């Protein structure tokens, strides 16, 4: 009987030690700065709600790109443009493709619509490209690796990301295309 009592006391002490250690871990996690906490948009700090490092009104860096059909594009384009950034590794990007295509179709004909699909050239990326081209025929789709030149020009730090650019200046940016207000 004393062996059983000793075993119960030992298990109780181990459980108590586990509880104390768990509280210690929780306290340490709460003490970490907010920049180390995960964010739903691929590790972006929770206190930073902009998808770009550019400030509104800041000039987008010039960059040359090639669309999937071989058309050379110099960014930023003259006039007004709607730009969307997607990545097959992003869980919310697929949900934003249809709203992006619908928004692109509603834009006036003089607005240039660009879509950038970032990441490896695989079946997932190809399906994104097909969905983006299913709407407005004037959508220019650019394929590039993660952290490619177009993403760097806009300072993209998470996906999906959307921007409105006028005469090279960033006018609006958000993680949801429906939230863009120039």
Tell me what the structure shows:
The protein has helices spanning 2-31, 93-106, 123-133, 149-154, and strands spanning 63-66, 72-75, 80-86, 112-118, 140-144, 161-166, 169-174. The protein has 182 residues and is α/β, with parallel strands linked by helices. It folds into 2 domains: 2-31; 63-179, Glutaredoxin, CATH 3.40.30. Strands 5-4-3-6-7 form a 5-stranded mixed sheet. It has a two-stranded antiparallel sheet with strand order 1-2. Strand 6 and strand 7 form a beta hairpin. Helix 2 packs parallel to helix 3. It is elongated and about 85 Å long. It starts with a helix and ends in an 8-residue tail after the last strand.
Biggest sheet descriptor:
5 strands, mixed
**CATH architecture call of the largest domain:** 3-Layer(aba) Sandwich
Count of β-strands: 7
Order of helices and strands: HEEEHEHEHEE
- The gross shape turns out to be elongated
Named CATH topology of the largest domain: Glutaredoxin
Number of structural units classed as domains: 2
Structural class: alpha/beta
Largest beta sheet: what is the strand line-up? 5-4-3-6-7
Radius of gyration: 24 Å
């Amino acid at each position: 009987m004393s062996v059983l009592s000793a075993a119960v006391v030992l298990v109780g002490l181990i459980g108590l030690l586990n509880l104390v250690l768990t509280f210690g871990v929780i306290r340490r996690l709460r003490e970490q700065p907010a920049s180390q906490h995960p964010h739903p948009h691929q590790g972006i700090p929770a206190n930073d709600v902009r998808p770009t490092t550019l400030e509104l009104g800041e000039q987008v860096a010039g960059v040359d790109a090639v669309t999937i059909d071989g058309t050379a594009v110099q960014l930023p384009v003259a006039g007004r443009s709607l730009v969307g950034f997607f990545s097959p590794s992003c869980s919310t990007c697929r949900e934003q493709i249809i709203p992006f295509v619908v928004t692109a179709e509603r834009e006036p004909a003089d607005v240039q619509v660009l879509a950038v699909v970032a990441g490896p050239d695989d079946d997932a990326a190809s399906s994104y490209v097909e969905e983006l081209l299913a709407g407005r025929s004037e959508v220019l789709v650019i394929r590039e690796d993660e952290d490619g030149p177009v993403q760097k020009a806009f300072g993209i730090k998470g996906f999906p990301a959307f921007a409105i650019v006028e005469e090279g200046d960033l006018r609006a940016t958000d993680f949801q295309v429906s939230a863009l207000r120039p």
